[in-house]
Amino acid sequence: MLNARGISVRFGTQRVLDGIDLSIPAGRFSALVGANGSGKTTLLNVLAQLVKPDSGSVSLGTDPLAGLSRRDIARRIGLLPQITGTPVGLTVGELVMQGRYPWQNWWRQWSDEDQRAVDAAVALTDIGHLLQRPLTELSGGQRQRCWIAMTLAQDTPVLLLDEPTTYLDIAHQVELLQLAADLATRGKTVVAVLHDLNQAACYADHLIMLRDGGIHAEGEPASVFTADNLEAVFGFRAHIIRDPHSGNPLCVPRTESAELELVSREARL
Ligand SMILES: Nc1ncnc2c1ncn2[C@@H]1O[C@H](COP(=O)(O)OP(=O)(O)OP(=O)(O)O)[C@@H](O)[C@H]1O
């Protein structure tokens, strides 16, 4: 269990996170959703100890993370940030190998275990055919899969993914979400910031809705993914319907034209 207690963060005069208490279930796939600017990235960065909160603490199980070295944290928590730049002069293979950095030191160089972790990450993200290519020559989606592979190669019990489906076509989005769900089934604790609410409700075991730097709702998607919560958090009205195949909740935005059509149809009856 990854626990955050009383987390508050200010940037200047702006309070971005406001006394957050959160218990992220171990071995589950949690999705973090909320409007732009609601504090999702800041919260992930606090969980990964990249942002020091003004108050509050994070622990993994019973172990507080504050005070651990960067290397020790990186052996426990892998973070895929929102990627904005591309390193020049690096091949895909070299990037993925960098995921093993926290496990190495001057007396322990590249090992069979490192190679196994890299091979597994490469296979899971289907980038074996790209290993010799410079990162700068790849499409945005291919590059995103390489970053994900690097994070997987780190082989941490906790994975924090900030908008991992960015740049991916729909088939690779679904693949990535299924991979996150599978990793959770195999015991990893996965937390992903997702903007596609239906994907979040469909793939995650646990949904966390952030609103103005606080937790508005959290729990199983079936109980959290309600029209009222979506309206409160995102300010839009939606119908919640069920996926006829899986039974998962899906939201359909209530557009003005659809509402008018409904009213006039009812008036005609
Ligand atoms: N380093 C920073 N310095 C100052 N303000 C910041 C910094 N990082 C984030 N903020 C502010 O904190 C608020 C929350 O930002 P954050 O990136 O956590 O939101 P988010 O929910 O991830 O947004 P998005 O969905 O747009 O990615 C925003 O108002 C943002 O401008």
TrEMBL record:
MF terms (GO), sorted A to Z: ATP binding; ATP hydrolysis activity
The keyword ATP-binding is annotated on this UniProt entry: yes
Domain of life assignment: Bacteria
Localization (cell): Cell membrane
Protein's UniProt keywords contain NAD: no
Protein family according to the UniProt entry: Belongs to the ABC transporter superfamily.
Any one of the GO CC terms: plasma membrane
Predominant localisation class: membrane
A GO BP annotation: iron ion transport
Protein name: Iron complex transport system ATP-binding protein
SUPFAM superfamilies linked: P-loop containing nucleoside triphosphate hydrolases
Species this chain originates from: Microbulbifer rhizosphaerae
Membrane-related topology note: Peripheral membrane protein
ABC transporter domain segment(s): 2-237
Keyword tags: ATP-binding, Cell membrane, Ion transport, Iron, Iron transport, Membrane, Nucleotide-binding, Transport
